[in-house]
Amino acid sequence: MGEVIIAFSNWIWGTPLLLLLMGGGFFMLIYSRLIPFRGLRHAMKVVGGKYDDPNATGDITSLQALSSAIAATVGLGNISGVALAISTGGPGAIFWMWISAFVGMATKFFTCTLAIMYRGKDSSGHVQGGPMYVIEEGMGKKWRFLSVIFCVAGIMGLLAIFQANQLTEVLRVVMLKPLGLDYGQPTRWIIGITMMFLVAIVILGGIQRIAKVASRLVPFMVIMYFVGVFVILYKNMGEVPEMLWYILEDAFTGKAVLGGAVGQVIITGARRAAFSNEAGIGTAPMVHGASKTDEPVREGLIAMLGPFIDTIVVCTLTALVIMVTGVWKTGEQNGVLLTLAAFEQGLPGIGKYILVVAVLVFALSTMFTYSYYGHKCFNYLFGADKANYYNYFYLITIVAGAVTSLSVVMSFVDGMYAIMAFPTMISAIYLSPKVVAATQDYFRRMKSMDKE
């Protein structure tokens, strides 16, 4: 079964999906007249709360929506995903992650603007947002089959199995093995069940509790992780320019891996970027669609900051730490264990403990937010009265993730992400003229407001 999952994932992440994600995102970048660059300053002001309206429709503030979306994206995708990118695609894959991120900023702007423009109502009459409602409300009922495909893949792909798997590995390697307390599979089961109970306490409280916990945890974990990273880079300052040059060189030669297969380097970079910042997958529109705002474009501008913070800033720093410490050349570790080796090398004695705490907080906050995404998909398909059953299924799969191998877990999640991307990108491209018209109107109004 594991081989089938891996083969399917490798097949679906071929040329058609890359053309859709990268090509579609590039089209939106040009069509929006480079909105990621044009709108960045205004987006920063919006995040600062300058334009918040407490009476607007929605469940959470725009800052909470951004924190929740970043909690789901700034996480193990940045710690493990970058390590996986380097170990499978070489350092050049990081360059293609950067390209994917700028393109992804435009994609996020369009998909999250649409999530507010075309909010729908669930069976209980509650206002909801996300690609499934964008398709139904914006494209019409005849396209509803795309919403169903998105939600089925979302229920399966938006599980916390990758986070559970990597957190289990870190706890075993750093905390339990040195004390002689790692007993293999039984230990994985115990960690998995403990995680399940911790996550249950938060997610059974709904989106308000998830957003509250995420908006408190995210700043703390990002600062702590950054401190560790900056100390390592400061100690190895002389090598940073050389490593940045190596990333650029390897992006077009692929010499670090696979005998110079540049195409494979590009695929690896785009694939890991999609897992890291989720642009075009359709997850962020679900949480941004719950924001208290009646300004779709404003929400799109806020959402656009996600890939920038996530991939351009955090992923680059992680990649440099792995490269300046030289651990990537050994080829012995994969995923989070490679980053762990880099932290241990860069900050002997305390590095691995900093990473353990960061991984613990990153993984748990991502687990909280993912449950909300899957819950929304389940709600759409089966009705609001049955949506809470999903949480129990979700909690059980955390244990499954803890006891399964990394390659199978990663390929399963990748495969489901790919399926979700098709409805999300098709609807965003189809409705893109509406977004461009709304953007022009929004900036016109903001200009006249600033003059007053």
Which structural traits does this protein have?
452 residues, mainly alpha, two-stranded antiparallel sheet, 21 helices, 2 strands
Shape label: globular
Strand content: under 5%
Q: How are helices and strands ordered from N to C?
A: HHHHHHHEEHHHHHHHHHHHHHH
Strand neighbour order, sheet with most strands: 1-2
By DSSP (H or I, 4+ residues per run), the number of helices equals 21
Which regions are unreliable across 5 or more consecutive residues at pLDDT < 50? Answer: none
End-to-end Cα distance? 64 Å
What is the residue-averaged pLDDT? 84
Helix content: over 70%
- Per DSSP E runs of 2 or more residues, the count of β-strands stands at 2
Query: Mind telling me the C-alpha Rg?
Result: 21 Å
**Biggest sheet overview:** 2 strands, antiparallel
What is this structure, in a nutshell?
By secondary structure, the protein is mostly helical. It is 77% helix and 1% strand. The longest helix has 32 residues, at 351-382.
Kindly describe this structure.
The protein has helices at 2-12, 15-31, 35-38, 40-47, 62-73, 76-89, 92-117, 131-139, 144-157, 161-176, 185-203, 206-235, 240-253, 262-277, 284-288, 296-324, 336-346, 351-382, 388-403, 406-430, 432-451, and strands at residues 120-121, 127-128. By secondary structure, the protein is mainly α. A two-stranded antiparallel sheet has the order 1-2. It is globular, with a radius of gyration of 21 Å.
